[in-house]
Design a protein that fits this description.
InterPro entries: Aldolase_TIM, BATS_dom, Biotin_synth/BioAB, Elp3/MiaA/NifB-like_rSAM, rSAM, rSAM_sf. This protein has 15 helices and 10 strands. With 402 residues, it is of the alpha/beta class. The chain starts with a helix and ends in a 40-residue tail after the last helix. The structure holds iron/sulfur cluster.
Length: 402
């Protein structure tokens, strides 16, 4: 396929595909799917070899959020039967993190529900970061605490945080349909604050919320414009008790196409296979390792994942290897410049494209035939049997599954 040859060439040169090319990846047929995976796999191997980075989630504070993100089981008014607890103490959080590190995690992600942290919250998370770093010198710590106020990113950085996560989640055009209590611009601002403080930015998306192919391409192009170092790709877990509980749109094949598209648009970025992989990729999970170079180990924030041992077995069986603590995840051109797409010499702004510019380009009309699946399908299998609310690990007396 000319399309795939072009995309591989561009990916190996870290060159941005066109919107039409990204849309065309999402529109490929099932007959073409293995070719798509193989092509994106070449780009993945060029920048990350066969390494898989393991990340471990610690939910520091669960539920009771005043925000109304429709996909989230911790949202205002959620009827989901999730664990609800307030801030873990630093020693409890450190103990939870240690389980992930023992399981092979290279990064610990400290996550708290809520609109954003108070300064007191930043203090307590800082204590947790320091305690984790004291016990595990080499582990990377990422904080995910919501919208940041001025100076908070600097304080987290000073406490030893390596990274900050804040996802864009969906396109700017559809953001208001998903959340009303904060804006897409608020999210962009927090990612930029993290970057300004010298934190490695992690920002990604959630697929499967009823968005069109154009929405997916919009958010991924906006992410490329923001230039985070890692891009988590979540597949919506439609949890009973949330407004999106009936939104089952994803097939394993569609998930693979989405991951391939993200890899082509963000070739040298850590693409992380995140929430929903067990539910939507199911037996196709190992194939996705050809596209993503990073996964979460074990459970998610409010739902259970497959066991950490199953994750490790899957990686080995598929011919990949767990990335060691002494290996730098990002390719040299990114790791040494602290960001930037690497396409330009010197201290250019990321990708030479501002998020606003990326958004502008995303508003250009797509050319060519409207891709199949442009509107979300409504007939995918409902697999509520694969969704299990987390009852172990952080916030419980039961051992985690890492
Ligand atoms: S702000 Fe975070 S925890 Fe709160 S509803 Fe939104 S995604 Fe969930």
């Amino acid at each position: 396929m000319d399309l795939l040859n072009t995309l591989v060439d561009k990916g190996l040169r870290r060159e941005l595909p066109t919107r039409e090319e990204a849309l065309a990846v999402l529109a490929t047929s099932d007959d073409e799917l293995l070719d798509v995976v193989a092509a994106a796999g070449k780009v993945r191997r060029q920048w990350f070899g066969r390494r898989v980075k393991l990340n471990y989630l610690v939910n520091l504070k669960s539920g009771l959020c005043p925000e109304d993100c429709s996909y989230c089981s911790q949202r205002l008014g959620s009827k989901a039967g999730i664990l609800k607890y307030t801030w873990l103490k630093p020693d409890e959080a450190t103990k939870a993190a240690a389980a992930g590190v023992a399981g092979g995690a290279k990064r610990v992600c400290l996550v708290a529900s809520g609109r954003g942290p108070t300064d007191r919250d930043v203090d307590r998370v800082s204590q947790t970061i320091e305690a984790i770093k004291e016990q595990h010198e080499d582990v990377e710590v990422c904080a995910c605490l919501g919208l940041l106020s001025e100076g908070q990113a600097d304080r987290l950085r000073s406490a030893g945080a390596d990274a900050y996560n804040h996802n864009l989640n969906t396109s700017e055009g559809t953001y208001g349909e998903i959340t009303t209590t904060h804006t897409y611009a608020d999210r962009v601002d927090t990612v930029q604050q993290a970057q300004s403080a010298g934190l490695s930015a992690c920002s990604g998306l959630i697929a499967g919320m009823g968005e069109t192919d154009a929405d997916l391409v919009d958010v991924v192009f906006s992410l490329r414009g923001l230039d985070p170092d890692s891009v988590p790709v979540n597949f919506l877990i439609p949890i009973e008790g949330t407004p999106l509980a009936k939104e089952w749109h994803l097939t394993p094949q569609r998930c693979l196409r989405i991951l391939a598209m993200v890899r082509f648009v963000c070739p040298d970025v850590e693409v992380r296979l995140a929430g929903g992989r067990e539910v939507h990729l199911r037996s196709m999970q190992p194939l996705a390792l050809n596209l993503a170079n990073s996964i979460f180990l074990g459970d998610y924030l409010t739902t259970e994942g497959q066991s950490g041992q199953s994750d490790l077995d899957m990686i080995a069986d598929a011919g990949f290897e767990v990335e060691g603590a002494d290996t730098t995840t990002l390719p040299g051109h990114r790791a040494t410049t602290g960001g930037g797409c690497g396409s330009h010499d010197g201290g250019c702004s990321p990708c030479g494209e501002t998020p606003e510019a990326a958004q502008d380009s995303s508003e250009a009309p797509a050319v060519g035939p409207e891709p199949a699946g442009a509107e979300p399908a409504r007939t995918e299998p409902v697999r509520t049997d694969l969704v299990t609310v987390r009852r172990r690990g952080a916030g419980t007396d039961i051992a985690p599954n890492a």
